[in-house]
Amino acid sequence: MKSFRTLKPALLRRELLAASRGRSYSRSFALCATTTTTTQRLRVNNVRHYSSQKSASVGGDGLKVDIAGAKKRESLPYFWLRDNCRCASCINQDTRQRNFNTFAIPADIKPSNVSSTSEGVFVKWSDGHESQYDWDFIQHYVKEDKRDRSVTHDQHYWGAEIASNQPTVSYNDVMNSEQGVAELTAKIQKYGFSFIDSTPHHDPDLTRQVLERIAFIRLTHYGGFYDFIPDLAMADTAYTNLALPAHTDNTYFTDPSGLQAFHLLSHTPPPGVSAETAQGGASLLVDGFNAARVLKKEDPKAYEILTKVRLPWHASGNAGITITPDKLYPVLEVDGETGELNRVRWNNDDRGVVPFGEGYTPEEWYGAARKWDEILRRGESEFWVQLTPGRVLVFDNWRVMHGRSAFEGIRRICGAYINRDDWISRWRNTNFDRKKVLNSVIG
Ligand SMILES: [Fe+2]
Ligand SMILES: [Zn+2]
């Protein structure tokens, strides 16, 4: 796709409109209709039937819209329409920001003319401004209240069986093409994780670079990109790292990291232990959305409790730092409107005191959390995988929980966090056309 910034405004407008209609710009017309062409079409308070299915006309307090099918409203408010003019003088075509003061427009603004064609609706306003709206926009808001912002469609929930069909992309594809980034982010969106195979492991900086193809790395009080080698003095002892049950990271942040990545660069067994017999510290992944679905099916009350009871979470291990979210958060956060699960927050070690007065007793919460914990530990929920050098694991920290078994020897692991908003932006922009992306974020 051409860079929008290199195009002249008029051409840009036509490009955008053409892109929005999925055809060449030669057939399209300027977004804000010119006086000549508009006046030819306009008649005072009339309706021009260019299409038998849809038309618009001046109504009492809004634009009357006549279209086929079920409607939520008969008309669209004038002031709302004027505020949503997308013409080149109202919207900066580079930044898509509003270019005018909404509140300088008279609250009682009305059209002096309305006309419609098969392309869209033209409105000439009482203050002389001229606007044009695509039918897609008009129809959407006659039939719906808002744009669908959900990003959880088309998700594939999984259990242990994902071991035989592991989402994977190649390092070269991600490094060398936007299509590779599209594929990586689409797999993470669908499955909650993906491997990046054939990543060089002689230099952790190459892992950092492949992760930065998604978005910049998040800084936290632990630092940014990390490359961890245990103290080599430990190699002389039978150094064992403990198992970690499935959890999400950053439960103590208002906005927990969206992605987390691990790359095992090397694993050296302890002295006297062969690489084959050393405990390798297998990694554990559990699909939290799948586990929540199982919980809801088997014990709807427990699911309800985990979505309703809000808890304190904290990180207090570093001197002078105590981090806690802006408010209490439940384990399972659902969208208040759609009821769709949006985020899992689960690390029993970072959890604070179960409060009273949350609509359920602490005993009820413990009962629900016990059931949740039991589902997470079922063999059918767990995907165990041995990380190997060259295979980067990237997962959605709002959905997929991670853990590991005990390991011996020295593991050198590098990795990073990436913000949720930034990776979802990258997913949108590499997987969907500009029109769809703008509709979903602007409305
Ligand atoms: Fe962790
Ligand atoms: Zn305008």
Automatic annotation (TrEMBL):
Ranges annotated as spanning the membrane: none
Domain (Gamma-butyrobetaine hydroxylase-like N-terminal): residue spans on this chain: 72-138
Entry cofactors: Fe(2+); L-ascorbate
Catalytically driven reaction(s): N(6),N(6),N(6)-trimethyl-L-lysine + 2-oxoglutarate + O2 = (3S)-3-hydroxy-N(6),N(6),N(6)-trimethyl-L-lysine + succinate + CO2
EC number per UniProt: 1.14.11.8
Domain TauD/TfdA-like: 158-417
Listed GO biological process terms: carnitine biosynthetic process
Protein's job: Converts trimethyllysine (TML) into hydroxytrimethyllysine (HTML).
Family: Belongs to the gamma-BBH/TMLD family.
Protein name in UniProt: Trimethyllysine dioxygenase
Native source organism of the sequence: Cercophora samala
